[in-house]
Amino acid sequence: MNDLTAAASPAGSRQAREGVRATALPTGVGITALITAYARAQESRRRDALFVDPLAESFVVSAVGTAAGTGNALPRLGPARDDGSSALWTSLCAYLAGRTPFYDRYLERALGNGRRQVVMLGAGLDTRAFRLPLATGTTVYEVDTPAVLDFKAGVLAGHEPASAAERVLVAIDLREDWVGALRQAGFDSGRPTVWLVEGLLMYLTAPQADALMAAITSISAPGSVFAAEYLNRRSRMDDVPISDSGDRAVAELLTSSDRGGPGVEPEAWLSRHGWVARRSDLVEELAALGRPVPALFDPERSDPLRSWLITAALPVPVRDVDEDAPMQTRRPVDSEVDSSATPE
User: Fold this and answer.
1) What is the C-alpha to C-alpha distance for residues 26 and 102, in angstroms, rounded to an integer?
2) What phi and psi, each to the nearest 5 degrees, are found at residue 204?
3) What is the Cα–Cα distance from 53 to 65, expressed in whole angstroms?
4) 208 belongs to a structural domain
5) How far apart are CA 26 and CA 70, in angstroms?
6) From start to end of the chain, where are the E strands?
7) pLDDT band at 27 (very low <50, low <70, confident <90, very high)
8) What is the number of structural domains in the chain?
9) Residues 6+ apart with CB under 8 A from 277
10) Is residue 29 part of a domain?
11) Average pLDDT in the 214-218 region?
12) Which domain CATH number covers 281?
Protein backbone atom coordinates (compact mmCIF):
# COMPACT_ATOMS: atom_id res chain seq x y z
CA MET A 1 0.00 0.00 0.00
CA ASN A 2 2.91 2.31 0.58
CA ASP A 3 4.87 1.15 -2.44
CA LEU A 4 6.00 4.10 -4.52
CA THR A 5 6.19 1.97 -7.62
CA ALA A 6 2.58 0.80 -7.28
CA ALA A 7 1.34 4.29 -6.46
CA ALA A 8 3.12 6.02 -9.33
CA SER A 9 1.12 7.55 -12.13
CA PRO A 10 0.59 5.15 -15.07
CA ALA A 11 1.84 7.96 -17.28
CA GLY A 12 5.21 8.04 -15.48
CA SER A 13 8.14 8.13 -17.84
CA ARG A 14 10.52 5.26 -18.49
CA GLN A 15 13.24 7.51 -17.09
CA ALA A 16 11.36 7.77 -13.79
CA ARG A 17 10.95 4.02 -13.55
CA GLU A 18 14.60 3.44 -14.34
CA GLY A 19 15.63 6.15 -11.89
CA VAL A 20 13.92 4.27 -9.09
CA ARG A 21 14.80 0.79 -10.24
CA ALA A 22 18.48 1.27 -10.93
CA THR A 23 18.78 -2.37 -9.91
CA ALA A 24 16.34 -5.26 -10.00
CA LEU A 25 14.41 -5.35 -6.73
CA PRO A 26 12.88 -8.40 -5.06
CA THR A 27 9.48 -9.02 -6.64
CA GLY A 28 6.70 -7.26 -4.75
CA VAL A 29 8.96 -5.51 -2.23
CA GLY A 30 8.27 -1.78 -2.26
CA ILE A 31 11.04 0.67 -3.00
CA THR A 32 9.89 2.75 -0.02
CA ALA A 33 10.58 -0.12 2.39
CA LEU A 34 14.01 -0.66 0.87
CA ILE A 35 15.13 2.95 0.82
CA THR A 36 13.99 3.33 4.44
CA ALA A 37 16.22 0.37 5.32
CA TYR A 38 19.01 1.99 3.28
CA ALA A 39 18.69 5.25 5.25
CA ARG A 40 18.85 3.33 8.52
CA ALA A 41 21.88 1.40 7.31
CA GLN A 42 23.62 4.60 6.25
CA GLU A 43 22.83 6.27 9.59
CA SER A 44 24.06 3.23 11.51
CA ARG A 45 27.50 3.61 9.89
CA ARG A 46 28.01 7.13 11.26
CA ARG A 47 30.25 7.69 14.26
CA ASP A 48 27.53 9.92 15.73
CA ALA A 49 24.67 7.59 14.77
CA LEU A 50 21.28 8.46 16.23
CA PHE A 51 20.58 4.73 16.47
CA VAL A 52 22.13 1.49 15.27
CA ASP A 53 20.09 -0.89 13.15
CA PRO A 54 22.51 -3.79 12.56
CA LEU A 55 20.11 -5.58 10.21
CA ALA A 56 19.29 -2.71 7.85
CA GLU A 57 22.38 -3.25 5.73
CA SER A 58 21.46 -6.92 5.33
CA PHE A 59 18.25 -5.90 3.56
CA VAL A 60 20.17 -3.60 1.21
CA VAL A 61 22.78 -6.20 0.35
CA SER A 62 20.14 -8.88 -0.18
CA ALA A 63 18.08 -6.61 -2.43
CA VAL A 64 21.00 -5.45 -4.56
CA GLY A 65 22.93 -8.70 -4.55
CA THR A 66 26.28 -7.05 -3.79
CA ALA A 67 28.02 -5.92 -0.63
CA ALA A 68 29.60 -2.53 0.06
CA GLY A 69 31.32 -1.03 -2.93
CA THR A 70 34.18 1.40 -3.54
CA GLY A 71 35.39 3.02 -0.34
CA ASN A 72 33.13 0.69 1.64
CA ALA A 73 30.08 2.72 0.57
CA LEU A 74 26.72 0.99 0.44
CA PRO A 75 25.76 -0.19 -3.06
CA ARG A 76 23.40 2.14 -4.88
CA LEU A 77 19.71 1.27 -4.57
CA GLY A 78 17.40 3.34 -6.75
CA PRO A 79 17.55 6.93 -5.46
CA ALA A 80 19.69 5.94 -2.47
CA ARG A 81 23.40 6.63 -2.96
CA ASP A 82 25.92 6.54 -0.17
CA ASP A 83 28.37 8.91 -1.86
CA GLY A 84 27.03 12.39 -1.14
CA SER A 85 26.31 13.09 -4.82
CA SER A 86 22.53 13.49 -4.53
CA ALA A 87 20.94 16.49 -2.84
CA LEU A 88 17.61 14.68 -3.00
CA TRP A 89 18.89 11.58 -1.24
CA THR A 90 20.68 13.68 1.41
CA SER A 91 17.31 15.22 2.29
CA LEU A 92 15.40 11.93 2.14
CA CYS A 93 18.01 10.16 4.26
CA ALA A 94 17.88 12.91 6.90
CA TYR A 95 14.08 12.58 6.96
CA LEU A 96 13.94 8.78 7.10
CA ALA A 97 16.72 8.45 9.67
CA GLY A 98 15.59 11.50 11.63
CA ARG A 99 12.10 10.18 12.32
CA THR A 100 13.39 6.81 13.57
CA PRO A 101 14.35 7.94 17.12
CA PHE A 102 10.91 9.53 17.49
CA TYR A 103 9.21 6.17 16.95
CA ASP A 104 11.82 4.31 19.03
CA ARG A 105 11.30 6.58 22.03
CA TYR A 106 7.54 6.48 21.78
CA LEU A 107 7.37 2.70 21.57
CA GLU A 108 9.67 2.22 24.55
CA ARG A 109 7.74 4.77 26.60
CA ALA A 110 4.35 3.27 25.73
CA LEU A 111 5.54 -0.20 26.72
CA GLY A 112 7.07 1.27 29.86
CA ASN A 113 3.57 2.36 30.85
CA GLY A 114 2.46 -1.27 30.87
CA ARG A 115 1.11 -1.93 27.38
CA ARG A 116 2.15 -5.24 25.87
CA GLN A 117 0.50 -5.29 22.43
CA VAL A 118 2.04 -3.51 19.43
CA VAL A 119 0.74 -3.27 15.86
CA MET A 120 2.88 -1.94 13.03
CA LEU A 121 0.78 -1.17 9.96
CA GLY A 122 2.78 -1.21 6.74
CA ALA A 123 5.64 -2.60 8.83
CA GLY A 124 8.00 -2.90 5.89
CA LEU A 125 11.53 -3.81 6.95
CA ASP A 126 11.19 -2.50 10.50
CA THR A 127 13.44 -4.35 12.97
CA ARG A 128 12.41 -2.79 16.29
CA ALA A 129 11.41 -6.20 17.64
CA PHE A 130 15.03 -7.26 17.02
CA ARG A 131 17.03 -4.20 18.03
CA LEU A 132 15.05 -2.66 20.94
CA PRO A 133 14.91 -4.29 24.40
CA LEU A 134 11.15 -4.79 24.40
CA ALA A 135 9.65 -6.17 27.59
CA THR A 136 8.89 -9.82 28.19
CA GLY A 137 5.27 -10.56 27.39
CA THR A 138 5.10 -8.06 24.53
CA THR A 139 3.54 -9.20 21.26
CA VAL A 140 4.44 -7.28 18.10
CA TYR A 141 2.14 -7.72 15.11
CA GLU A 142 3.84 -6.74 11.85
CA VAL A 143 1.28 -6.16 9.09
CA ASP A 144 2.38 -5.96 5.46
CA THR A 145 2.03 -7.75 2.14
CA PRO A 146 3.11 -11.39 1.81
CA ALA A 147 5.96 -10.44 -0.56
CA VAL A 148 7.44 -7.92 1.88
CA LEU A 149 7.19 -10.24 4.88
CA ASP A 150 8.60 -13.20 2.92
CA PHE A 151 11.63 -11.15 1.85
CA LYS A 152 12.06 -9.89 5.40
CA ALA A 153 11.84 -13.38 6.90
CA GLY A 154 14.46 -14.67 4.49
CA VAL A 155 16.94 -11.96 5.42
CA LEU A 156 16.30 -12.22 9.16
CA ALA A 157 16.52 -16.02 9.29
CA GLY A 158 19.19 -16.98 11.81
CA HIS A 159 19.28 -13.60 13.54
CA GLU A 160 18.37 -13.59 17.21
CA PRO A 161 16.26 -10.66 18.45
CA ALA A 162 17.60 -8.50 21.29
CA SER A 163 14.20 -8.50 22.97
CA ALA A 164 11.94 -11.11 24.50
CA ALA A 165 8.97 -9.91 22.46
CA GLU A 166 6.96 -12.32 20.34
CA ARG A 167 6.75 -11.36 16.66
CA VAL A 168 3.59 -12.25 14.76
CA LEU A 169 3.64 -11.67 11.01
CA VAL A 170 0.29 -10.75 9.46
CA ALA A 171 0.66 -11.10 5.71
CA ILE A 172 -2.07 -9.03 4.09
CA ASP A 173 -2.45 -5.94 1.93
CA LEU A 174 -3.98 -3.07 3.91
CA ARG A 175 -6.56 -2.67 1.14
CA GLU A 176 -7.97 -6.04 2.19
CA ASP A 177 -9.60 -7.15 5.47
CA TRP A 178 -6.53 -6.57 7.60
CA VAL A 179 -8.63 -6.20 10.77
CA GLY A 180 -9.97 -9.73 10.34
CA ALA A 181 -6.50 -11.06 9.61
CA LEU A 182 -5.11 -9.32 12.69
CA ARG A 183 -7.80 -10.82 14.91
CA GLN A 184 -7.19 -14.25 13.43
CA ALA A 185 -3.48 -13.87 14.24
CA GLY A 186 -4.33 -13.44 17.93
CA PHE A 187 -4.81 -9.69 18.35
CA ASP A 188 -6.85 -8.89 21.47
CA SER A 189 -9.04 -5.81 21.05
CA GLY A 190 -9.68 -5.77 24.79
CA ARG A 191 -6.06 -4.89 25.58
CA PRO A 192 -4.54 -1.40 25.11
CA THR A 193 -2.47 -1.33 21.93
CA VAL A 194 0.53 0.65 20.71
CA TRP A 195 -0.13 1.52 17.05
CA LEU A 196 2.83 2.54 14.88
CA VAL A 197 1.96 3.86 11.42
CA GLU A 198 5.31 4.96 10.04
CA GLY A 199 5.77 6.20 6.49
CA LEU A 200 2.27 5.36 5.30
CA LEU A 201 -0.27 8.17 5.60
CA MET A 202 1.11 10.44 2.87
CA TYR A 203 0.38 7.70 0.31
CA LEU A 204 -3.33 7.71 1.22
CA THR A 205 -6.12 10.04 0.18
CA ALA A 206 -8.13 11.74 2.94
CA PRO A 207 -10.99 9.19 2.68
CA GLN A 208 -8.49 6.32 2.80
CA ALA A 209 -6.77 7.81 5.85
CA ASP A 210 -10.15 8.22 7.57
CA ALA A 211 -11.11 4.64 6.78
CA LEU A 212 -7.80 3.39 8.19
CA MET A 213 -8.19 5.43 11.39
CA ALA A 214 -11.80 4.32 11.80
CA ALA A 215 -10.69 0.70 11.56
CA ILE A 216 -7.92 1.27 14.10
CA THR A 217 -10.34 2.95 16.49
CA SER A 218 -12.92 0.17 16.15
CA ILE A 219 -10.52 -2.39 17.64
CA SER A 220 -8.63 -0.17 20.11
CA ALA A 221 -9.26 -0.49 23.83
CA PRO A 222 -9.23 2.68 25.96
CA GLY A 223 -5.65 3.53 26.86
CA SER A 224 -4.37 2.58 23.40
CA VAL A 225 -1.83 4.94 21.86
CA PHE A 226 -0.86 5.86 18.32
CA ALA A 227 2.18 7.34 16.55
CA ALA A 228 2.43 8.39 12.91
CA GLU A 229 3.68 11.15 10.65
CA TYR A 230 2.45 12.94 7.56
CA LEU A 231 3.08 16.14 5.63
CA ASN A 232 1.26 19.44 6.10
CA ARG A 233 0.45 19.50 2.38
CA ARG A 234 1.16 17.55 -0.79
CA SER A 235 4.76 17.76 -1.91
CA ARG A 236 5.63 19.55 -5.16
CA MET A 237 8.53 19.46 -7.56
CA ASP A 238 9.73 22.86 -6.35
CA ASP A 239 10.10 21.42 -2.81
CA VAL A 240 12.64 18.87 -3.89
CA PRO A 241 16.39 19.55 -4.14
CA ILE A 242 17.63 18.16 -7.45
CA SER A 243 21.24 17.47 -8.41
CA ASP A 244 20.85 15.67 -11.75
CA SER A 245 18.43 13.94 -14.10
CA GLY A 246 18.33 10.88 -11.86
CA ASP A 247 17.16 13.01 -8.95
CA ARG A 248 14.57 14.66 -11.16
CA ALA A 249 13.13 11.32 -12.26
CA VAL A 250 12.84 10.13 -8.68
CA ALA A 251 11.35 13.46 -7.56
CA GLU A 252 8.63 13.10 -10.20
CA LEU A 253 7.76 9.69 -8.84
CA LEU A 254 7.83 10.85 -5.21
CA THR A 255 5.56 13.83 -5.79
CA SER A 256 3.11 11.89 -7.97
CA SER A 257 2.84 9.23 -5.24
CA ASP A 258 1.97 11.75 -2.52
CA ARG A 259 -1.82 11.53 -2.05
CA GLY A 260 -1.99 14.18 0.68
CA GLY A 261 -2.87 12.01 3.67
CA PRO A 262 -5.59 13.14 6.11
CA GLY A 263 -5.65 16.64 4.62
CA VAL A 264 -6.20 18.44 7.95
CA GLU A 265 -4.06 19.19 10.99
CA PRO A 266 -3.40 16.16 13.23
CA GLU A 267 -5.31 17.34 16.30
CA ALA A 268 -8.48 17.93 14.29
CA TRP A 269 -8.15 14.70 12.33
CA LEU A 270 -7.62 12.46 15.33
CA SER A 271 -10.15 14.28 17.49
CA ARG A 272 -12.97 13.36 15.14
CA HIS A 273 -11.99 9.72 15.62
CA GLY A 274 -12.06 10.10 19.41
CA TRP A 275 -8.32 10.40 20.11
CA VAL A 276 -6.39 13.07 22.03
CA ALA A 277 -3.43 14.11 19.88
CA ARG A 278 -0.27 16.17 20.07
CA ARG A 279 2.29 16.96 17.42
CA SER A 280 5.81 18.15 16.88
CA ASP A 281 7.60 18.23 13.56
CA LEU A 282 10.76 16.94 11.94
CA VAL A 283 12.58 20.28 12.20
CA GLU A 284 12.09 20.29 15.98
CA GLU A 285 13.13 16.65 16.21
CA LEU A 286 16.32 17.18 14.22
CA ALA A 287 17.21 20.31 16.21
CA ALA A 288 16.85 18.35 19.45
CA LEU A 289 19.10 15.66 17.99
CA GLY A 290 21.72 18.21 16.91
CA ARG A 291 21.21 17.57 13.21
CA PRO A 292 20.83 20.16 10.42
CA VAL A 293 17.51 20.66 8.68
CA PRO A 294 17.41 19.00 5.22
CA ALA A 295 16.73 21.28 2.26
CA LEU A 296 13.42 19.51 1.64
CA PHE A 297 12.04 20.89 4.92
CA ASP A 298 13.73 24.30 5.01
CA PRO A 299 11.47 26.42 7.30
CA GLU A 300 12.77 29.65 5.76
CA ARG A 301 11.01 28.98 2.48
CA SER A 302 7.62 30.45 1.74
CA ASP A 303 4.93 27.81 2.31
CA PRO A 304 7.47 25.33 3.74
CA LEU A 305 6.90 21.59 3.62
CA ARG A 306 6.59 20.18 7.13
CA SER A 307 6.58 16.63 8.40
CA TRP A 308 4.27 16.42 11.40
CA LEU A 309 5.23 13.84 14.02
CA ILE A 310 2.05 12.80 15.78
CA THR A 311 1.22 10.97 18.97
CA ALA A 312 -2.24 10.27 20.30
CA ALA A 313 -4.10 8.36 22.97
CA LEU A 314 -7.59 6.91 23.22
CA PRO A 315 -8.87 8.25 26.54
CA VAL A 316 -9.75 5.97 29.41
CA PRO A 317 -13.38 6.52 30.49
CA VAL A 318 -13.81 8.50 33.68
CA ARG A 319 -14.63 6.20 36.59
CA ASP A 320 -14.48 6.23 40.35
CA VAL A 321 -14.88 9.99 40.46
CA ASP A 322 -16.36 12.25 43.08
CA GLU A 323 -19.79 13.00 41.62
CA ASP A 324 -19.89 16.25 43.60
CA ALA A 325 -16.67 17.53 42.02
CA PRO A 326 -16.91 20.15 39.25
CA MET A 327 -16.94 18.42 35.84
CA GLN A 328 -13.76 20.16 34.69
CA THR A 329 -11.79 18.72 37.63
CA ARG A 330 -12.76 15.08 37.11
CA ARG A 331 -9.87 12.92 35.98
CA PRO A 332 -9.62 9.28 34.94
CA VAL A 333 -8.07 6.93 37.49
CA ASP A 334 -5.65 5.99 34.72
CA SER A 335 -4.32 9.47 33.93
CA GLU A 336 -1.55 8.40 31.59
CA VAL A 337 -3.53 9.62 28.58
CA ASP A 338 -1.84 13.01 28.74
CA SER A 339 1.67 11.67 29.25
CA SER A 340 1.27 9.05 26.54
CA ALA A 341 0.02 11.59 24.02
CA THR A 342 3.28 13.50 23.96
CA PRO A 343 6.29 12.62 21.82
CA GLU A 344 8.72 13.09 24.68
Assistant:
1) 29
2) -110, 150
3) 20
4) yes
5) 23
6) 117-121, 139-144, 166-171, 194-197, 225-231, 276-281, 307-313
7) low
8) 1
9) 266, 267, 269, 270, 271, 310, 311, 312, 341
10) no
11) 98
12) 3.40.50.150
